[in-house]
Amino acid sequence: MGFALSTMRLTSPAFRNGGAIPAKHTGEGEDVSPALAWDGAPEGTRAFVVVCHDPDAPLVSGRGTYGFVHWVLYNIPGSVQNLPEGVSDYTAGKNDFGKTGYGGPMPPEGHGLHQYYFWVLALDDEPKLDAGLSMWELLERIEPRIIGMNRLVGTYERR
Q1: 9-53 per-position pLDDT tens digit
Q2: Helix or strand or coil: residue 59?
Q3: β-strand partners of 150
Q4: What is the rounded CA–CA span in Å between residue 141 and residue 126?
Q5: Measured in whole angstroms, how far is the alpha carbon of residue 77 from the centre of its chain?
């Protein structure tokens, strides 16, 4: 799969790009997803997907996947341009904690600063996907439908 960033912008009132994710949005806090907003979706966008992935996690699977997936959310209509904090709408996929929904940052103690990539992907179709897909399963199903994407990167370090 190959992806290229588009002109979409993804922001959060909780942290700036490259900034620290507040403890409230981590496994050491309330573990609630941050509010997100996006604009600049390509013409023809019919649905969105949001994921959060930690590529700094020292995990590689036998399938060649890497890092740790914290959030998979999909079946978001193309008319939506933001998600409230703690969103419970739309369809939740499976994170690498083995649960559905959001699981906030919580790197191993002493592992240093991790980067968390919050991605928004614009799709040219409205696939009705079943709940519980992993990020990798979801990407396999939607890859030909992705017409735009961008990311917001937050950081967190357990102390």
Answers
A1: 999 999 999 999 999 999 999 999 999 999 999 999 999 999 999
A2: coil
A3: 120
A4: 12
A5: 16
pTM of the model: 0.92
Maximum distance among all Cα pairs of the chain, rounded to whole angstroms: 45
Task: Please tell me the distance from the alpha carbon of residue 53 to that of residue 96, in angstroms, as a whole number.
Answer: 10
**Residue 121 has which token pair?**
């992907």
Q: Which tokens go with 101?
A: 């929904």
CA distance 23 to 21: 6
The phi-psi region of residue 67 (left if phi > 0; otherwise alpha if psi is between -120 and 50; otherwise beta) is left
Give the helix ranges, DSSP H, for the chain: 135-142
Which tens digit of pLDDT belongs to each residue from 64-120? Answer: 556 899 999 999 999 999 999 999 999 999 999 999 999 999 988 888 899 999 999
Q: φ, ψ for residue 121 (rounded to 5)? A: -120, 130
Residue 97: CB partners within 8 Å, gap ≥ 6?
Answer: 70, 103
